[in-house]
Design a protein that fits this description.
The chain folds into 2 domains: 11-139, 3-Layer(aba) Sandwich (Rossmann fold), CATH 3.40.50.2300; 155-255, Arc Repressor Mutant, subunit A (Orthogonal Bundle), CATH 1.10.10. It contains 13 helices and 5 strands. The chain has helices at residues 11-14, 24-36, 47-55, 73-83, 98-106, 119-129, 155-166, 173-180, 184-195, 199-217, 222-228, 234-245, 249-255, and strands at residues 16-20, 40-44, 61-65, 89-93, 111-114.
Length: 257
């Protein structure tokens, strides 16, 4: 029996990124940044839609979320690999599961991002995979990422993962040192040595980077962005935001709208 020839991917499809996520704000933010890098984006809200798009060879790169309404991202990834063994896939997830990450890398993903992450870091990766160079891409550094040398191996990594999941809530030094399983004094010294900043500075960086995602969407009220991301007041938010980015939230929104 003769198999049906596979449809060739068009030239336009090679520069098309398929974003598979049911969260509108994330898709809008990533889509806006991808467009600025000369890439076209297409959105799939479900695993079924993503698979249909891959079958039609409509994209040259996939950004795939683990949590989808109809099936988990690993099942979608398995199907993508059956259809397109070599297509680059960037995987996103809302929690840091070692089992999920190991399985995803075994299925050949190009990179793995744990939410919250700075959207530009993911878009820079996507642009490089698509063969687009940007002089600014290598200048950006995500200060909230865990250094590879200690990832998944220390009490500090446990603390960082807890902060990434609970950044919008109040987190005290006692709470985070208890999670790390060490004294407050030991935690404070160890954290600064590993992360090159204090616990409080890191938490502020994390909250600001997440707030940037809301500001990119250009819809949320500035005050609500502050409170949604763990800041106790608008003044504290504006002060922290300017310290990290060099701009006020209003300036940042204006420059990125």
């Amino acid at each position: 029996m003769t198999s049906t020839p596979r449809k060739r991917r068009s030239r336009n499809a090679k520069k098309t990124v398929l974003i598979v996520d049911d969260e509108p704000m994330i898709c809008e933010t990533l889509g806006t940044l991808l467009s600025r890098r000369g890439l076209v984006f297409k959105q799939a809200l479900t695993g079924k839609e993503a698979i249909e798009s891959i079958e039609k060879r409509e994209a040259g790169l996939v950004i795939l979320d683990f949590s989808l309404p109809d099936m988990d991202g690993l099942k979608v990834l398995e199907k993508i690999r059956d259809l397109e063994p070599d297509i680059p896939v960037i995987f996103m997830t809302g929690y840091g599961s070692e089992t999920v990450s190991i399985r995803a890398f075994k299925l050949g993903i190009s990179d793995y991002f744990i939410k919250p992450f700075h959207p530009r870091s993911l878009v820079d990766k996507a642009a490089r995979l698509a063969g687009i160079k940007d002089d600014e891409a290598d200048d950006y550094k995500d200060e909230t990422s865990i250094p590879k040398k200690i990832e998944n191996t220390s009490e500090i990594a446990k603390a960082v993962e807890h902060m990434k999941k609970n950044y919008s809530s109040k987190i005290s030094l006692k709470e985070i040192s208890d999670i790390a399983g060490i004294s407050k004094f030991h935690f404070t010294r160890s954290f600064k040595k590993v992360m090159n900043m204090s616990f409080s500075d890191y938490l502020n960086h994390l909250r600001v980077r997440k707030a940037e995602e809301f500001l990119y969407s250009n819809t949320a009220n500035i005050s609500s962005v502050a409170y949604k991301n763990g800041f106790s007041s608008l003044r504290q938010f504006e002060r922290s935001f300017k310290k990290v980015t060099g701009k006020t939230p209003m300036q940042f929104r204006r420059d990125n709208s």
